[in-house]
Design goal:
The protein folds into two domains: 23-82; 86-160, Beta-lactamase Inhibitory Protein, Chain:B, domain 1 (2-Layer Sandwich), CATH 3.30.1450. Helices cover 24% and strands 34% of the residues. The protein has helices at 2-19, 32-39, 86-90, 99-106, and strands at residues 44-47, 53-58, 66-71, 77-82, 111-115, 118-127, 131-139, 145-152. The strands form two sheets. It has a four-stranded antiparallel beta sheet with strand order 1-2-3-4, with helices on one face. Strand 2 (53-58) and strand 3 (66-71) form a beta hairpin. The longest helix has 18 residues, at 2-19.
Amino acid sequence: MRLSTTLVTLFCIGLLAGCANPRLLVVGQSTEADVHNRMGKPTDTRVDRNGDRLLEFATGPEGFETHLVRIGADGKVKEVTQLLTEERFGTIVLGKTTKAEVRSLLGTPSEENSLPTGLHWSWRIRRGGVQPGYMVVRFNPDDTVNDKIIMIDPSGDSRDQ
């Protein structure tokens, strides 16, 4: 009896994890309704300057991924993007990139702190897809990026397993 309960539980967890899988969305075919059915409720919704709806699905504050699903005027998925990558982080230019641009590049921060050294935003990541850590951005008073760093958590913790 105990084994069958465990198997059913694992099966259900697998189904739930599969439901939130953005890889199941097909660009040009999946509709916004499909996105909601597979991904659930977005953590943020906005409209860009060309009228596309942007649905953000953050797994934070403790998760390592934030996906952005772009919906065109026809109601179909135009693009699915994983926002929390080192490549995207690398495009941030010190003294030039603004808070709004960082927000657009990386999505909703996992954590926001106002410290004497300035406003800091951070996002949890898996560096190289494996090593847990954080991307951190600190802003100037004029809302441009003062500095940025990727901090690795060499010990990780139980939630990272």
